[in-house]
Amino acid sequence: xxxxxxxxxxxxxxxxxxxxxxxxxxxxxxxxxxxxxxxxxxxxxxxxxxxxxxxxxxxxxxxxxxxxxxxxxxxxxxxxxxxxxxxxxxxxxxxxxxxxxxxxxxxxxxxxxxxxxxxxxxxxxxxxxxxxxxxxxxxxxxxxxxxxxxxxxxxxxxxxxxxxxxxxxxxxxxxxxxxxxxxxxxxxxxxxxxxxxxxxxxxxxxxxxxxxxxxxxxxxxxxxxxxxxxxxxxxxxxxxxxxxxxxxxxxxxxxxxxxxxxxxxxxxxxxxxxxxxxxxxxxxxxxx
Length: 288
What we know:
- By secondary structure, the protein is mainly alpha-helical.
- The protein has one domain: Farnesyl Diphosphate Synthase (Orthogonal Bundle), CATH 1.10.600.10.
- It is 68% helix and 0% strand.
- It has 14 helices and no strands.
- The chain has helices at residues 18-39, 45-63, 72-85, 90-104, 111-121, 123-132, 138-158, 160-165, 173-178, 183-188, 193-213, 215-219, 222-244, 258-274.
- α4 (90-104) runs antiparallel to α6 (123-132).
- This is 15-cis-phytoene synthase.
- It holds the Pfam family SQS_PSY.
């Protein structure tokens, strides 16, 4: 998991078994290509849709076991990974659907709509990782969904201001109305009682979801299980930092420093050895 970014299902790094690094890298290249088309550069919406349609044609070619009309080298490598590990293609199609939705949708009416987006944009990565390691049981998939969705929501809460600059609001509009928050709060970076109440509500929801999915990290053996423990506690630490900042994600965007990552490492080891999530202790260093 990169230190300066926390989103979706963290792509394992040095802890990933060496045999899986190449297939994970290929999957990541496909996902990153789609995400860059949807969100980077100066293309028009129509051009982005056309490029994503090309990627869909590449996936269709993999499904039909023929040469891809676009990015033939990348999709050729993906076809090999899909065949070797018997990966389903549905998660890739879901990710493309999420990219399309990201182009066309800048607001979400309620939490259900936002979670629906996360089911396509975040959860597929967890499904693919579990299929890669032969652990795609219903229980594991459900817990991975919780971790993936929670991780993406954390990235949304950290990037409220940055997303606003892209004309995107991921806080559910129904929640804004419930707590008396308007988009003017975001535009002006207003952190008042209404904003803090809203963010406390959102942080609590995400924390519960992350903890609910955490047992997956204890069921997955080896290095990947350790990485998942770290992902859980990294997410929880970000939530703590949001709270410590008084929910001000505008002027003091929460980041994790060296000390924070040491805290995450200690909690990861404790979780792994004790076989318990152990989040009842909100901070091992008290009020730091």
